[in-house]
User: What shape does this take?
Amino acid sequence: MEFVLPKKVRDFFYDRLIKNQVEKFISINKNNISKKSFCPILINSFNSYLSRFLIEEIFKIITPGEKNITSNIENKLNSNKNISFNVKISKNHIEISPGEYGINDRTIVSEYINEVSSMNNIVNGNKKNIIVWNIDKIGNIAFESLHNIIKTNEDTANFICVTQSLNKIDRSIFGSVTLLNIENPDRNFYLDFFREFNDDFKIQDNSVDEILDNIKLGYIEYNFNSFLKNIGIFYNFNLDKTDNFENSFIKFIEILYLKITTKNRISDTFIEEIRNLLYDLYVYHFSYEDIINLFIDFCSNDDSIKEENKLKILDMACYFNLTSGKGNKQIIHLEAFLYNFINIYFYGDLVNNFGKKIDKKPLVIEKVKKLRKTKA
Assistant: This one.
């Protein structure tokens, strides 16, 4: 199960936003691609979905015909077992975001990234492919260490670094990497998109200006993240015309809901699978509210759930909605909600992050009270 935009839409994005950078990558590495080697790359993009899109296209060139099946692995450092961090790996690559771990980023970079990049892939003998996300969010010491590792281990590792803000990183790294810059689309991009897909998205002509106003940040710039959410959530794809639009956001959440509620046994592997799916959505910048509102809709219409358990689920949705607004990692609160949803659905109990039953009822805010009145 994978959330993807329709192929027609991806092709449009590729031609308008990604193609030039792919051609630049090929041009500067044409003598090394056959050896599965390329110079260190720095991708600058305002949107993590487009960064991943470009990375996927690079891997199609480096490892043609191979699909990178990834899994999340929790690691601990040999020198400090108290520092744990997540790494996404496949047989062809390793990706990590050290900036998520505060001051520990310097140790993760100097020990883990240095170690894994210092030797070739033992399976195929090729250079390791290392993706380092959000280097604009790591501290100065970690950044300097990463820069030195890129230069030192260039013979054993292909590096792809990703940033959302060039202004926040030390310019010294520009001498060691090739910049692939995905530019923020202008108004013409969006107008061309709506002309191309007007029939598929069933968008009224007089609604285009309203959509553009909703995603506009200023006089010139537009918010591509809001645009993705608009075409993925607020407009239904015309499923009668093409099955390319089958993987819409709403359809994806419906499948995820059914995947959870029809499971015979909840294992640690299954929980990890759900986490991976949530992080796929996180890449597309779908918020807690985007996902949770659909879960509540499906839950409210699910006759297999007892009314008392529906109320517990609504309580938890509002509780984690409140907590998600207090931090910058909504994905953590979403994981916690789904973990509790699974336990309520199957066992009727509320649990905390350690699997212990919660005796005290979570906070019920006005939204739940209104929902109760509506159901009554």
